[in-house]
Sequence to fold (313 residues):
Amino acid sequence: MKEELIISGRMNPKIDPVLHAWGWEIPTYLFLGGLAAGLLFFAGLYYLLGKEKVYSVAVRKAPVLIPIILVVGLLALFIDLHHKPYFWRLYTTIKIQSPMSWGAWTLMAVTPLSMVWAAINIREWFPNWDLKYTWIKDIEEFITGYKKYMAWAMVLFGVILGIYTGILLSAFNARPLWNTSILGPLFLASGLSAGSAVIMLLSKNHNERKVFARIDLILIGIELFFIVHMFMGFQASTQVQIDASHIFLGGELTAAFWIFVVVLGMLVPAALEVMELRKIKVPVIIPVVLILFGSFMLRWLITYGGQLSRYLY
Fold:
């Protein structure tokens, strides 16, 4: 009789009966990263299009919030880390094939960039802010001369950051629900939608609200397109991915996904935006809150659902 010793980690805490390694911190980080990406993209885009004065909230006011959003998101990510003193090791190398490396270096570039853009537009929130020192005014004037280059960088890094939040999950091949290339574009569209919602909330300009309501309607349509094709891809794939898709198609997260994400987070705000565009008065805070809620729940449910899916049954 030949004896064999089998060593398994499946009896470790949070492994059986299903994996539960990520809690609220990761979806919070993914949501805030997507929101920051959306605000960055619109600020840079409309500055380059010469619409800084027409869409002043999108270009100057809303981006002041980006550093705060990023700091809160990074704090959530830091809380999730199990080896906090070693986070700096992400910055000792660059690995093109690693989504973690891409994310770390993108955030390293985006955070100071957003802070500089916020600093030169801070008077949008504090009109009476007085730069008492001449050297501060000189620095501001110097930086303002490079706004066009900064805007190009914001558009580029906004797209990268938005897609990265989805690729971070899709790179985990061991989780069938995450292992789809649609997550990157889906999370980008969701982040842009969340960014347009915040701009609508902050803007008092009816024309600006109208433009971003139309943009958001297009983005919601794109999100629904990606969601439908994501499930179509799962259903046409291997048995393990078919089983993974059933988490949202008859499984335990079905009601939460279709009610909170699709109905409340997309269809209802889209209907309210159509009503507003047809001059039926709707308090702007209602669709905005629903869009942000749906954007967060999309990441929460996909993060949690992915941990329920697995290859071993």
